[in-house]
Predict the 3D structure of the following.
Amino acid sequence: MKESEKIQVYTELFKAYLNKFNKTRDIQWKLNIALWTLIGATGGFLYGKYIPSIFECIVILIVFTISYFTLWSYPIQESLEQDKYLFLKYRDKLKMAIGEEISEKILKRSKFRWLFITSGLTVVLFALVLLILSSAK
């Protein structure tokens, strides 16, 4: 494969994975905001109609937290990390192909930072709705 063909392939792969990363991140935020809205609206709808006991609140919160984390939050974060790894990989290959120096400085960040922030916000919001529902009389 010629050098110009490699550059073209690396460019296309870089763009594809960067685009996929950005779309996944946008979908993640839109669905999180929709879920937060749904939690709040459901709480408003159920206020005064359903008064859960403390035990029910704990069970519901545990089931919700485990389901949210395992079915949505963790898989989407893994997808984002994979896409990020790939677009950075092809960016570096593209830099090498055109003779640009690759920085050796690598920023170490926890890949779970946003995972815990969004999951935490969701669980706290859900817990607050359950608390409000359980205190309604």
